[in-house]
Amino acid sequence: MHNDQICQNLTRMEQEGANLEKLLATAVELLHNSNPRFHWTGIYELYPDNVLRLGPFIGSPTDHVFIAVGKGICGTAIAQKRNLNIPDVNRVANYLACSSSTRSELVVLIRAGETIFAQIDIDSHEFNAFDPVTVRQVELVAERLAQAYQKQHRPDQPSESRKT
Ligand code: SME
């Protein structure tokens, strides 16, 4: 499924009343199946205590269910407030290994301006798996999910306190 269709599916589901959890899980599933180079696809949500917590994912189970801001590639993306496309994870000093097969990793923030809600994290067994077209497609899904976060306020994650 092309990423435009993923966004259309998410929009339709939201219009039909799907909650944020359902939208996140569906986005992970559709993204994961959209590209054979995606070997682990998941979402980490940023909580007010500045810790990322693993949400829905597809792939091998990971020990890294909680990641503090600044730690690993995921926490560094939050600390630096930017997406990270890592062509070779073995060249990153504070990389947190999920699988010994992983060679490259992409983190795309789900954000509205300065407010970061979560991130899409994708691992690949191939080096440099994320070309600019692929990155843009994941960014479009992240932008769609950011709209859902803005609409669907959750009391355990007051959006005001997510501001970094
Ligand atoms: N590699 C990530 C940890 C998450 S696992 O890949 C699922 C990192 O360095 O932050």
Describe the structure.
The protein is of the alpha+beta class. The chain has a single domain (3-152), classed as GAF domain (Beta-Lactamase). It is 34% helix and 24% strand. The chain has 4 helices and 6 strands; from the N terminus they run H-H-E-E-E-H-E-E-E-H. A hairpin with a 7-residue loop joins strand 2 and strand 3. Mean pLDDT is 92; it is low at 158-164. Methionine sulfoxide binds at residues 40, 42, 62, 64, 67, 72-74, 95-96, 98, 105, 121, 123.
Query: What about the largest sheet?
Result: 6 strands, antiparallel
Report the uncertain regions.
158-164
What is the fold named in CATH at topology level?
Beta-Lactamase
Strand arrangement across the biggest beta sheet: 3-2-1-6-5-4
The number of distinct helices, counting runs of at least 4 residues, comes to 4
Helix content: 25-40%
Radius of gyration using CA atoms only: 15 Å
Strand residue percentage: 15-25%
Bound molecules: methionine sulfoxide
- Tell me, briefly, the overall form: globular
Give the end-to-end Cα distance, rounded to a whole number of Å.
34 Å
Class derived from helix and strand content: alpha+beta
| Chain-averaged pLDDT | 92
CATH homologous superfamily assignment: GAF domain
Q: Got a strand count? A: 6
The first-level CATH class is given as: Alpha Beta
Task: Summarize the helix and strand pattern as letters.
Answer: HHEEEHEEEH
Key attributes of the depicted protein:
164 residues, alpha+beta, Beta-Lactamase, six-stranded antiparallel beta sheet, 24% strand, globular, binds methionine sulfoxide
